[in-house]
Amino acid sequence: MFELKYQTPKAWADVVLNDFDAFLTDHAAAEKKASGMAMSMISHYPDRKSVVKAMADLAIEELIHFKQVLKLINARGGQLGADEKDPYINQIRKVFRNGSDVFFMDRLIVAGVIEARGHERFSLIAQALPEGKDKEFYQSIAKSEEKHKNLFIELAYEYFPQAEVNQRLEEILNIEADICAALPFRAALH
């Protein structure tokens, strides 16, 4: 449906694999926050039936992903850490415009772009991992993120003219590319 403007170098995956336990902790936090974001969308837009249905399904799926990552952490003898602020998320949220309709549109588009970045990076992790259950898990997670990316943009098309969505998507993709290019690599999704 759309392509990211910044392609994460494979060197990012090397950083992740060098501290995979830290990455898993961050991944668990990201899944938990994604589930919470979906529930928040339901709370803020109860009159948008398509959003409510889609976000109810998404919240459950993201919570299942959280539980799966938690299982990986436990199998490695680790434990959850405290949630940390995500500099990528903090920066990309600055694109939200004031005004209920444009804020809603931006929220949908930004969510789609975040899911697209997740798809790209989980795919890189899957490629870098040796054959086995972890690799299969990250291949599966990457496919889910790709579906989510499309879901959010399809919802935006349902509520707003496609030309407006596409124009704003292009603007946000350029901003997101600049954010990614400026952030240092770390053992985290973003």
In short:
By secondary structure, the chain is mainly alpha-helical. The chain has one domain: Ferritin, core subunit, four-helix bundle (Ferritin). Helices cover 76% and strands 0% of the residues.
Fold and architecture overview:
With 190 residues, the chain is mostly helical. The protein has one domain: Ferritin. The chain contains 7 helices and no strands. The longest helix is centred in the middle third of the chain and has 29 residues, at 100-128. The protein is globular and about 45 Å long. The protein starts with 9 loop residues before the first helix and ends in an 8-residue tail after the last helix. The model has no long low-confidence stretch (mean pLDDT 96).
